[in-house]
Design goal:
61% of the residues lie in helices and 0% in strands. By secondary structure, the protein is mainly α. The protein has a domain of 47 residues. The mean pLDDT is 86.
């Protein structure tokens, strides 16, 4: 019975160390992981919408039209 308890205790320690180690890895590598996900998302969006995303994006006009008059108030 003592051997079973020792095996469970060792297994519990190994699992705890694995959880803490993986959490520490994610914490230390979070910037790299976020940038990786961002680049994958941008690639997927660029492939889906080639005319709207990236260097092929339409340019904004340099000027706009004249000012519009305000709407007329309805008479009572």
């Amino acid at each position: 019975m003592q051997k079973i308890v020792n095996i469970v205790a060792v297994a519990s320690g190994v699992v705890s160390l694995a959880v803490v180690g993986s959490g520490l890895y994610v914490y230390l590598q979070r910037d790299k992981l976020i940038n990786n996900v961002k680049s994958q998302v941008m690639e997927a969006v660029s492939d889906s919408l080639p005319g709207l995303v990236g260097s092929q994006m339409p340019k904004l006009p340099r000027a706009t039209g004249p000012v519009m008059a305000p709407p007329a108030m309805p008479s009572r």
